[in-house]
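Researcher: Structure prediction, please.
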Amino acid sequence: MNFLQRLWTRMTTTVTAAGPRILVVEDDIEVLNLIKDLLETEGYRVETAADGFQGIAKYKKGVYDLVILDHRMPRIGGNEVLETIRSSPGGAAQAVVMLSAENMLGPIGKSYELGIRDWIPKPFTAKTLLTRVRAQLHADKKL
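Model: Predicted structure follows.
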């Protein structure tokens, strides 16, 4: 079944089982909606935030199995959001994956120092995103 068939099936059927809950923080609305659609098609419960401040606010109000952060966002970037998550109650153990078009060792290294579990380079394929999300959730036995 291809992506469009899965999406149509997802949109036209009622899902009874609640999948893992994922927060996606991404300032590019097209990318944000693409990620949301891909993950929801696979049965995940997805909340979104269009910038770092919204991401922090949503994180503080919810409990997530995984957080996906864009590295570069205006006003407050992914590393700053990650620092806030890490300093929140229970945030030290939060599974976080970073997305970015950055491919330099410096930004990647800093994000790993702050505790990301994985880095997904942009552009990415649906298969790469879903494989990496499943791997992180499986590591925590959320799948």
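Model: Confidence is low (pLDDT under 50) at residues 12-16.
Researcher: Thanks, that helps.
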